[in-house]
Each structure stands twice: as C-alpha cells, then as structure tokens.
Design a protein that fits this description.
- The complex is a heterodimer of chains A (about 110) and B (about 110).
- Chain A has no helices and 9 strands.
- Chain A is mainly β.
- In chain A, the strands form 2 sheets. Chain A has a 5-stranded mixed beta sheet, with no helix packed on it. Chain A has a 4-stranded antiparallel beta sheet with strand order 2-7-6-5, with no helix packed on it.
- In chain A, a hairpin with a 5-residue loop joins strand 6 and strand 7.
- Chain A starts with 8 loop residues before the first strand and ends with a strand.
- Chain B has about 110 residues and is an all-beta fold.
- Chain B has no helices and 11 strands.
- In chain B, strands 2, 4, 5, 6, 9, 10 and 11 form a 7-stranded mixed beta sheet that branches. A 4-stranded antiparallel beta sheet of chain B has the order 1-3-8-7, with no helix packed on it.
- In chain B, a hairpin with a 5-residue loop joins strand 4 and strand 5.
- Chain B starts with a strand and ends with a strand.
- The model of chain B has no long low-confidence stretch (mean pLDDT about 90).
- The chains are: A mainly beta (about 110), B mainly beta (about 110).
- Chains A and B meet through strand 3 and strand 4 of A and strand 4, strand 5, strand 9 and strand 10 of B.
Chain lengths: ~110, ~110
C-alpha cells in the first residue's frame, strides 16, 4: 500500500506556481520523498527527491516539513505541458528500495 | 549516459498465447530493475524487481514471471495470456543508494 496521501486533482493557471501537497505521516528515518509525474500514455518521469532538506532543481522545488510528515512540490511557473498525474512516494534509498505508487494528483494547467 | 530500452511499443496478443517483453539498460552496471503494470485508468502496480542476476522478487501473485539472464537485461514472460493481462507495462532501473528511477517508454499490451 502507498504510504502517502495526495489530493486526487488540482487546477492551476498557466504561469502561476503549482503547489502540490503530500502527507506521509508514517515516514521512517531512512525513507526519501520522491516525486514523479506521468503525462498521458508515457512512462513516469523523475522530478526530484529529498530526505530532510529542501531541494531545488531545474524542474521544481521540494519543501519538506521539519517533522518530515508532509511535503510540497512546487512548479514555479506552470505551463500547459505540466499537465500530468503527479506522484509522491516515500521509499528507502538503499539497494532494492521499491517505489510503490499511489493514485497521485491529476494536475490540470489551464490557460 | 545511461539509457533504458523497452520493446515492443505496442502488442496485440490472443488469449492463451505466450508473452515475452524485454528491457535492457545501457551505460551502467548492476542496476536495480523493475517491472510495473498500469491497467487502463489505474495507478502503477509493481510486479517484479531484481537487485542482481538471477535474483527476482515478485510483488503480487499473477500469471506472469520475470527473469534476469544478464546484468542489464530484464524479461517479463507469460506462458498463457489472460484478458486481464492487458495493460501498459513499464520497465525501470535505478542505481540504488537513494537515486531515482528511470522508466522506459513502455509496452501497451492488448490481449484479445
């Protein structure tokens, strides 16, 4: 079973920031928070991951609360091409760590 | 750089026929390998994963099997396909140690 809870859907206006929340209240100390997205009919695409500290890359920012029980993925300037299902996953990073996908959040970016 | 190849892209097979889907990874050694399935309108379900040659772990009981005959080759098979085996099959790899997964482009299987 997935260990995260995400809203099933969200809308965002093009050009605005998209903030996607995720709850993972049972996360263990050795588990990372991963974010992936899946555009229709394609394989999932890695976005970002983190353990404790906030992370930023060219795609997004990941904000993890101090108690690590929740996180937020931020797409700073959403475009129509960001319309996708976004998955938040927690998993240990060691050898054999598995990604168990939940239902994700379907983000619709509207003009 | 590392690349993952998965084929075929689409496949239509009759019920009761065998199946063999192949996935290969280039540019890395000893990857963790994974097979996922996504039924229409559903989420991704982990089917098998492998941390080394000949080491296969099955996540769910089903009509499928997996093998890893070489370090960077992962094969998904079935002796007799069922209608319920239809779906989008995705192979993925990771280096472990907290790295993310990289997914292949997937095979859309329709069993008729």
């Amino acid at each position: 079973d997935a260990k995260t809870t995400q809203p099933p859907s969200m809308d965002c206006a093009e050009g605005r920031a998209a903030n996607l929340p995720c709850n993972h209240s049972t996360i263990s100390g050795n588990e990372y928070v991963y974010w992936y997205r899946q555009i229709h009919s394609q394989g999932p695409q890695y976005i970002i991951h983190g353990l404790k500290n906030n992370e930023t890359n060219e795609m997004a920012s990941l904000i993890i609360t101090e108690d690590r029980k929740s996180s937020t993925l931020i797409l700073p300037h959403a475009t129509l091409r960001d319309t996708a299902v976004y998955y938040c996953i927690v998993s240990p990073g060691n050898q054999g760590g598995k990604l168990i996908f939940g239902q994700g959040t379907e983000l619709s970016v509207k003009p | 750089s590392q690349t993952i190849h998965q084929w075929p892209a689409t496949l239509v097979q009759p019920v009761g026929s065998p199946l063999s889907l192949e996935c290969t990874v280039e540019g890395t050694s000893n990857p963790n390998l994974y097979w996922y399935r996504q039924a229409a309108g559903r989420g991704l379900q982990l089917l098998f994963y492998s941390v080394g040659i000949g080491q296969i772990s099955s996540e769910v009981p089903q009509n499928l099997s997996a093998s890893r005959p070489q370090d960077r080759q992962f094969i998904l098979s079935s002796k007799k396909l069922l209608l319920s085996d239809s779906g989008f099959y995705l192979c993925a790899w990771s280096a472990g140690q907290g790295d993310g997964y990289t997914f292949g482009s997937g095979t859309r299987l329709t069993v008729v």
